[in-house]
Amino acid sequence: MGLMEDLERVALQERELRLPELDARVAWELGVRLRSMAETRGQAVVIDVRRFGQPLFFAALEGTTPDNAEWVRRKSNVVARFHRSSYRVGLTLRAKNDTLLEKYGLPVADYAAHGGSFPLAVAGAGIVGSVTISGLPQREDHELVVEALCGALGREYADLSLDRE
């Protein structure tokens, strides 16, 4: 799948994957789902689910480092700023041969336009938080989050997944 096709598909994922609500229980269940998926697959990831300004779930699986938690922070800052997935922001910048620093003046120490952070949209309220993964290649980080959201919402992951590279 090419860059433009990925951009269109990620925009579709963002439109389709909306939660009915986001409270501590929903965040916990999503976090536990992601943790279980990653453990079953032997993936070393850090998982963060938050309402903006309020962490609701955090887990660092065996094999991760403090750097993964830093990537989570930087990626979730992108979602908080743009209300789009960090992967979509990164793909958009790549398509225009641009960077967050050049286009928006955002420092790389605080923002990372790499896949793995996805906006949590609540029906009737809009984007209220993010779910973020760090530890895999960026496309895989993004897709793990999408797969977990599909499972949580009873959606078929195959209907929304990016084609395999």
Number of strands: 5
Q: Give the number of domains.
A: 1
Distance between the termini: 7 Å
Q: Major sheet: order of its strands?
A: 1-4-5-2-3
Q: Assign the structural class, choosing from mainly alpha, mainly beta, alpha/beta, alpha+beta, or little secondary structure.
A: alpha+beta
Any idea what the CATH superfamily is called? Haem-degrading domain
| Regions with little confidence, pLDDT below 50 for 5+ residues | none
CATH names the topology as Beta-Lactamase
Biggest sheet architecture:
5 strands, mixed
Written as H for each helix and E for each strand, in order along the chain, the element string is HEHEEHHHEEHH
How much helical structure, as a percent, in the residues?
40-55%
How large a portion of the residues is in β-strands, by DSSP E?
15-25%
Shape: globular
Going by CATH, the architecture would be 2-Layer Sandwich
Structural overview:
- The structure is a single chain.
- The chain is α+β, with helices and mostly antiparallel strands.
- It has one domain: Haem-degrading domain (Beta-Lactamase), CATH 3.30.450.
- The protein has helices spanning 3-16, 24-41, 66-82, 86-95, 100-104, 138-153, 157-160; strands at residues 18-19, 46-51, 54-60, 117-122, 126-134.
- A five-stranded mixed sheet has the order 1-4-5-2-3.
- Strand 2 (46-51) and strand 3 form a beta hairpin.
- Helix 1 (3-16) packs antiparallel against helix 4 and helix 2 (24-41) crosses helix 6.
- It starts with a helix and ends in a 5-residue tail after the last helix.
- The mean pLDDT is 96.
